[in-house]
């Protein structure tokens, strides 16, 4: 495909920011990778590696690391935000101090903010001053950075209130290893990406407890049911949950050793406590904060989310994982498709 080279800033030099910078560099774009750790930026510029996050990978020499946000954003129109959800507001505030040009922001993070209960595109809209935000696009889907950086086939979805902007981002990223779809259901895409991390933690716990594939299939399927139940109440399309950002991302995160959420859950299932687990991970485990947010959302929307509730109790109320599973399994009997009846607005 014929492509015009663009100048793009990727903010966040962790696993995902670095892997996406590689996709953009492969597509011939001028990529500036900003990180807040000058030692790591030196490593990127002098050795073309990012050993902490992608230890096996040599980066294209056309990716230039920046530790000054002002320099990284000079003359830039398109920004990829690849920091953890809890850093989004801080980084946006820093951006608004050093730039006055309207920006297209693509966020690639997977979380919901506890207490405010905002999705990431909503947090960005809230933080960006009037006139500085051209559009917000989300890019999400089953995509471990480790595999994207090896150029293994990967599919993702972009969404936005402004589908013209989403299509532009589709063109920026798409290539023969990295296939990008569009979906206008912004709420569904963001909710699916964020909430799958909760179920991945639960799947890791199940594996850590020594349970097998039956339990994992149950968690993925019933997890999807509760994510869709909440998502639909929040305004998402039920169809989105059968797509890449729904079941697709659930499968990859619940079944892959690359997943930090699955790995954290696995350690919890094996008996470590949350503090130990998070200390040992050294990378973001989004599902922990998102469990709190989803628990609050379930209360707000009056939605039944048994797996989320069980995980909330393990993480924040010191409930033993085995007891939490026993609790889930001994609930009142029910109709499997009750959820579907809700979604379709009738009885089955
Ligand atoms: N990894 C993956 O495969 C995928 C991740 N995602 C999502 O992308 C988002 C980022 O994840 P990922 O890259 O994996 O996380 P990592 O933990 O690998 O990296 C996070 C990066 O953000 C930096 N950072 C943290 N806080 C700040 C801050 N306040 N200001 C500036 N930089 C900051 C970290 O810096 P430091 O090194 O100093 O801690 C690090 O460079 C998450 O929401 C995740 O769910 C989505 C799809 C795939
Ligand atoms: O979102 C991801 C893959 O699509 C990455 O998941 P983890 O954050 O659990 O590693």
Protein described:
One of its GO terms (biological process) is glycerol-3-phosphate catabolic process. Its EC number is 1.1.1.94. By secondary structure, this protein is an alpha/beta fold. It has two domains: 178 residues, Rossmann fold (3-Layer(aba) Sandwich); 153 residues, Orthogonal Bundle (N-(1-d-carboxylethyl)-l-norvaline Dehydrogenase, domain 2), CATH 1.10.1040. The chain is 51% helix and 12% strand. It has 16 helices and eight strands. An eight-stranded mixed beta sheet has the order 3-2-1-4-5-6-7-8, with helices on both faces. Helix 1 links the parallel strand 1 and strand 2. Helix 4 packs parallel to helix 5. The longest helix has 23 residues. The relative contact order is 0.11. Bound molecules: NADPH dihydro-nicotinamide-adenine-dinucleotide phosphate (NDP) and 1,3-dihydroxyacetonephosphate.
Largest sheet: 8 strands, mixed
CATH top level of the largest domain?
Alpha Beta
Using the CA coordinates, give the radius of gyration. 20 Å
What portion of residues is helical?
40-55%
**What's the mean pLDDT score?**
96
If you consult CATH, what is the topology of the largest domain?
Answer: Rossmann fold
Number of DSSP helical runs:
16
What's the domain count? 2
End-to-end separation: 48 Å
Domain Glycerol-3-phosphate dehydrogenase NAD-dependent N-terminal: 7-165
Binding site for sn-glycerol 3-phosphate: 110, 141, 143, 196, 249, 259-261
InterPro entries: 6-PGluconate_DH-like_C_sf (IPR008927), 6PGD_dom2 (IPR013328), G3P_DH_NAD-dep (IPR006168), G3P_DH_NAD-dep_C (IPR006109), G3P_DH_NAD-dep_N (IPR011128), NAD(P)-bd_dom_sf (IPR036291)
GO biological process, one term: carbohydrate metabolic process
